[in-house]
Amino acid sequence: MIVEKLNTGITFIADKVPSAKSACIGFFVKAGSVDEDSSNYGISHIIEHMMFKGTPTRNYHQISEEFDVLGAEVNAFTSEEYTCYHAKVLPENLVRVADIYIDALMNSCIDKDELSRELKVILEEYKMYEDMPRYKTFSLFNNVYNKGTSFEVDVIGTEETIANTTREKILDYMSKHYCAENVVVCVSGKFDEDEIKSHIENSLILPHTNKVRNLNLNFNSAGYLSAVKDIEQSHVMMGCHIFGEDDAHKYAMMILSGLMGGTMSSRLFKNIREEKGLAYSVHSMTDFAADTGTFYISAAVSHENVELTIESIKEELIKLKEFSFDESEFVKAKNIVKSNVIFKYEDASDRMVKLGSRQLLNNNCINVDEIGNFIDTVTYRDVLNMVDFITDISNYSCVVLSNREIDIKSIL
């Protein structure tokens, strides 16, 4: 794997995979919801939608047609910390697909009529998510858990800020964030390294910036919210703050999360689903951003079982604090985490996203082929040392979406 800062200021990553038959390319831009404010919430996501609506030399239909002619699988996504435009393509068509992305990144027209139409589409997307209980619960949790920080507002924004987005706002935002120092291009799979690197360096020319991202990470104390909605099943989400992506204890925390709620034999699953029959779905997970992270527990339960489910989650956390876990649980969870990670990175698209985002946000590029070795070095004691991070109930924020009010605070 090669990581190189090009003369243009853009960072280029070449990750050749000997067994691959295709190439995956991603254009990562350091522009996400953490860069927005109350005047433009959701604008990073809107720009992602507008990126392929036309340039001076290609209209929307021509762009779509070119991608199809080249047999490319194309997509894009926006997260809290970055936007990614990516494609999977046969190696012989990689440069031609990259050229379409470069044209869009440099020359998108952001036509006012196209923007007006697309904002209506995004408002429908917003309403769709509002009608999805699991997503709505996560959204409410995010607002409570991250209140007052750069992570508070959802990537999609609000109805008001979406509706009030203008071409002028988009161009102003892009001028500040779509700059060479904020862009990483990552290629993974099978490709001609010299050819694609030369094309990127000679064709993708973006303005420069010395702007440094400053995040507000002043998280408040735990928050609770009980939201009422006419739904068939209640949704519970709890979480506490941990550490960021680069922390040396990351894999130990992932193993502890797997032990608690990662599989059908995990503690939460056995207690809440198998022994008590309270929930169909209950699990825990970790999520790491560049400078912060979260340990989550979520469950979908019958309305009448909400209180007992939260009590049971609390019970398992107390049990972990008081009695810890044995060596066999550790070995099982470690093997599961290692398998999941290695299986995931067998896919060139997942490798590309991991490599590109890590370089963009942390300015270092982990060798995904060595991750299994990193996990192997995690010891029983390493995971045991993570217990205190997740067993203080007072650190947990909690949101419940149900058909009735729930007194969360009194339970926790």
Verbal overview:
By secondary structure, this protein is an alpha+beta fold. It is about 45% helix and about 20% strand. The protein has 17 helices and eleven strands. It has a six-stranded mixed β-sheet with strand order 1-2-6-3-5-4, sandwiched between helices. Strand 1 (about 1-5) and strand 2 form a beta hairpin.
Q: Summarize this, please?
A:
By secondary structure, the protein is α+β, with helices and mostly antiparallel strands. The protein has helices spanning 43-50, 60-69, 94-107, 112-130, 133-145, 159-163, 167-177, 193-203, 250-261, 267-275, 306-323, 327-344, 348-362, 371-376, 380-384, 387-390, 408-411, and strands spanning 2-5, 11-16, 23-29, 73-78, 83-89, 183-189, 224-228, 234-242, 279-288, 293-301, 397-402. The strands form 2 sheets. Strands 1-2-6-3-5-4 form a 6-stranded mixed β-sheet, with helices on both faces.
Descriptive labels:
single chain, 412 residues, alpha+beta, six-stranded mixed beta sheet, five-stranded mixed beta sheet, 17 helices, globular
Helix count from the secondary structure assignment: 17
Poorly predicted runs: none
Q: Approximately how much beta-strand content do the residues carry?
A: 15-25%
Q: What structural category characterises the helix and strand content?
A: alpha+beta
Question: What is the 3D form?
Answer: globular
